[in-house]
Amino acid sequence: MTLEPTGQLTPTPTGHDLILTRSYRASADDVWASVTEPERTARWFGPWRGQAATGRTIEVQMVFEESAPWCPLRIEACEPPRRLAVSMEDEAGSWSMELLLAESDGTTELRLVHHLASTEHLGQTGPGWEYYLDMLTAARTGGPRPDFEDYYPAQKAYFESLA
Q1: Do the Cβ atoms of 84 and 77 come closer than 8 Å?
Q2: Which 3 state secondary structure label does DSSP give 82?
Q3: Residue 52 backbone dihedrals phi, psi, to 5 degrees
Q4: Is the pTM of this model over 0.85?
Q5: Which candidate among 30, 91, 133, 140 keeps its CA 20 to 30 Å from the CA of 42?
Q6: Given the DSSP bridges, would you call strands 48-49 and 8-12 parallel, antiparallel or unpaired?
Q7: 75-111 in b/e burial notation, b at 16+ Cβ within 10 A?
Q8: What digits encode the pLDDT tens for the residues 94-118?
């Protein structure tokens, strides 16, 4: 776990991609289970319910957010154990994200790509994803959970400088 921001911003034809990576000494199947099985996602992001399949919408509970709301999450693509693309809409706007996994020599790199139409909220979004990915790392290693206050506002200026 690191408190140094790792996110990178890449321009695209429709906006920008915010990209954050983590590496795990594990198979892609094991990392895939950490990001797709409800009992495992509950440890770092929140549980989910519903019939998961490409083109369907499930509900995810954001248990580490204020009031722990349940939010609809549409599964745009599910290609185990390499790619999961999802989207959601809430009062903060539209979210389009992908999780991409690549395994090599017993190590799996997880790349979170948040497709952004605007960089307006990058100063809040970036630290949030750093926090959640470190939550994933803590859940996988049994380490202590990070504290969001260590990420925000400390990393805000870094992410704003990427735009």
Answers
A1: yes
A2: coil
A3: -75, 130
A4: yes
A5: 91
A6: unpaired
A7: beebeebebbbbbbeeeeeebbbbbbbebeeeebebb
A8: 899 999 999 999 999 999 999 999 9
